[in-house]
Amino acid sequence: MHKISKFNDLIEKYDLFLFDLWGVVHDGNSLYINVLNTLKELKRQNKKVHFISNAPRLNSAVKPVLERLGVNPDLYSGITSSGDTCYEMLKTKTYGEKYTYIGLDKDIGMIDDLGYFRINPGYYPDFILCHGYFGDNRDDEIHNILEMGISKNLTMICVNPDLTVINMGRTLYCAGKIAEKYKDMGGNVKYFGKPYEDIYNLVCHNYDTPKSRILAVGDSLYTDILGANNFGIDSCLVTQGIFNEKLGKHLENSIFTNNINDLSSKYNARPSHIIHEF
Questions:
Q1: Total structural domains in the chain?
Q2: What is the model's pTM?
Q3: How far, rounded to the nearest angstrom, does the alpha carbon of residue 174 sit from its chain's CA centroid?
């Protein structure tokens, strides 16, 4: 685990780069500094870039966001989201066919073409599908759904294990936070996305790259870095994201060292490399 100042110093060591999106490539509104230059340099050196995101939606909905931000498809090989891994598993109808939804309106219906029925909590759903918060002040409604789930012993399917995300400098809570509460209440949760192995298998079966030549890049120790550790590939922690307060470049070296050691122990996740930004 060592700090680097230039991402270009890593390019020669790897052939496939798995980039997180939020907190690494963009902040929800605009690209971070030097991202495009890095992607262009990777392309120039014939490296492959695959975006791997805990976005609770299909990759077909992620691609237009990247294009709007200025990341053209010729700069990467593919996109895989936690929504994709969830969608593939739910083809099996393992948890039944009726579900209650928690999340933003824009993500409603992700699995409806698979023959599922989205119903109100009071109509005996088979499981809870959690994409995130509703986007307005409806915490009581979420709590009521969780209590209903506990009473009926329903599994919650969490399509985004992230606890928080940085959106234009603000910290927003994600589906993982709701799932954490449900588990604390005694509920059963099935997660999709990083740090779980399914998403890495879904990505890497498209490439012949040995694990020793793959680098995962992300801003979260408990999803990006832990996932890379579990899958057996190297990782690079970008500290400008959700851990900026405790690991950012504004800190003295001694404080940074203490913090990264404490956080690595806390989350049982150890990055191969650390960089503040591209």
A1: 2
A2: 0.93
A3: 10
